[in-house]
Amino acid sequence: MKFTTAALAAIVAYASAAPTDTFIYPDTLSTYQVWSGAVTYDVQTGQIFKDGKTSDITTLLTFTFPDATAGKTCEFNFALNNCLHCNPGYPTGTTQFDAYTALAPADHSTKDWPSGNLRDQYVGRLKAVKPGLATPVDGFPAAGPFPCPAGKTYGGELVGAGDQVNIQWDGKGEGPYFRVY
C-alpha cells in the first residue's frame, strides 16, 4: 500500500493530536469503621457500605501527584469493570457515594479513635455504574476538574449516600483514580 506525502502528514498530525491523558491511582486504600473509628490500612478491596444495622464502612484513599502533573488539570473519576471474578459484584442500594478530602492520609491501622478518618472538605456526589464510569448526581457539586497539586500527597474518603448502599471494588485496576490532562 502506498501513502502520499499528504496522507502521511495527516496520519502523523492525527497521532500527535491523540490524547495523552495519564491516570493516577491510589497509593493505598484503607477501610474505616464508622462506629468504632477503626482503620484497616492498605487493603486490596475498597468498600462503601451502609445498611442501618451494622457499622458503616468508608474507604480512605491516598493519592500522590507526581511533579510531572504541574500545570495540568486533574479530574476525579471512579470506574468499575465487568470482571466478576476479580471484584465482589454489582453495586446495590442507592449506589451513590460522597467524596471528601482528608486532613491527612491514613498511614497505619488503628483499633479506635482518635485517628479515625480525618474527613475534611466535601467534594461531590457520584453514582457508581458497573461496568462504567460513575456519573455525577444532579443537585450536588461536581468533583472537579481542578489544577493538579503537583508534588503533593493527599488523602480522601468515599462515603455511602442514602440509607443503604454497598459498592465494592478491586483496588487493582478499578475504583477511584484521577485523570490528568
Mean pLDDT: 87
In the CATH scheme, what's the topology name? Jelly Rolls
Strand content: 35-45%
Gross morphology is globular
How far the N terminus sits from the C terminus, by CA atoms, comes to: 35 Å
Which strands sit side by side, in order, in the main sheet? Answer: 3-2-5-13-8-9-11
Number of β-strand runs:
15
Q: What's the Cα radius of gyration?
A: 19 Å
Biggest sheet features: 7 strands, antiparallel
Discrete helix count: 1
Number of domains: 1
Signal peptide: 1-17
Keywords: Signal
Domain Ubiquitin 3 binding protein But2 C-terminal: 54-169
Protein name: Ubiquitin 3 binding protein But2 C-terminal domain-containing protein
Task: Fill in the keyword field for this structure.
181 residues; mainly beta; Jelly Rolls; seven-stranded antiparallel sheet; five-stranded antiparallel sheet; disordered N terminus; signal; Ubiquitin 3 binding protein But2 C-terminal domain-containing protein; Ubiquitin3-bd_protein_But2_C
Question: In terms of topology, how is this protein built?
Answer:
Layout: H1 5-17, E1 22-24, E2 28-33, E3 39-40, E4 45-50, E5 57-64, E6 73-80, E7 92-93, E8 96-102, E9 119-127, E10 132-133, E11 135-136, E12 146-147, E13 153-161, E14 165-170, E15 175-180
